[in-house]
Design brief:
Largest sheet: 9 strands, mixed
Shape: elongated
Radius of gyration: 21 Å
Helix content: 10-25%
Number of helices: 6
Distance between the termini: 23 Å
Bound molecules: uracil
CATH class of the largest domain: Alpha Beta
Strand content: 25-35%
């Protein structure tokens, strides 16, 4: 993590104050004065400001049941940001792990731990995301085979990774994917001539959404660890 970020995480300082302290030569990392705010440090390093050893605040891991008509952004942009539904300090340090569209509801993860989010969003990690999808027209009989084989979406140069489609009723399906391309689910159904009219993310990895609409909670230690590479 960057040194200025570490200082914010372990003190009440904001990014500007942290940078000023670093540039003024008041911060030592493993007994060396460091004046570059971008210096990469690890939580095991001994970081001292004015003789005081810093201890980083533990990372935070949050799940939210996103309502429709809210946006996955740190600021309001036409619709309220999902951060309006979460009540924790230093929200600027948090980021969203895999955004949902404005009209999509469901499970959103929020954290300040970039390595952890990488395990969830990187396609290499094969972390499954499960969506409940309502469709305008009855699902075609060959849709599951097409999704499993992979679809070349307009504007992409590689087909989608194998996805699992389960039919609940003619216009309701459950889709499991391991990627998170822009509007991926809607584009996959458009590619087979259908249209998503309602979309809800129910699961990410082993984590099943268990909250009322617009509610949030911290994840348990076991839930956080469930996303670590096996
Ligand atoms: N795919 C979409 O098309 N929209 C979402 O919100 C999530 C996945």
């Amino acid at each position: 993590m960057r040194l200025d970020k570490f200082i914010c995480k372990s003190t009440g300082h904001n990014r500007t104050q942290a940078r000023q302290l670093i540039v003024a030569g008041e911060v030592a990392v493993n007994n060396l004065i460091i004046v570059d705010p971008a210096e990469q440090v690890h939580e095991n390093n001994c970081i001292i400001i004015n003789g005081q050893i810093l201890v980083a605040r533990p990372s935070r891991y949050i799940m939210l049941h996103k309502p429709a008509a809210s946006i996955c952004s740190n600021v309001d942009e036409g619709y309220p940001s999902i951060f309006n539904y979460i009540d924790v300090p230093d929200m600027d340090d948090l980021h969203i792990v895999g955004r949902l569209d404005t009209d999509t509801t469901g499970l959103v993860l929020v954290t300040d731990d970039g390595r952890w989010s990488f395990n969830i969003i990187s396609p290499q990690q094969q972390c499954e995301k499960v969506y409940l999808v309502e469709l305008r027209s009855a699902i075609a009989t060959d849709a599951a085979d097409k999704f499993s084989a992979g679809l070349l979406l307009p504007g992409e140069n590689a087909p989608t990774l194998a996805a699992k489609l389960e039919v609940i009723s003619p216009r309701q399906v459950r889709l499991t994917i391991t990627q998170g391309k822009y509007h991926q689910v809607k584009r996959m159904f458009a590619a087979i001539g259908n249209k998503v009219i309602k979309l809800h993310r129910q699961k990410i990895g082993d984590l099943d959404l268990d909250l009322e609409l617009a509610a949030w909670r911290y994840l348990s230690v076991a839930e956080v660890a469930s996303f670590n590479p096996k």
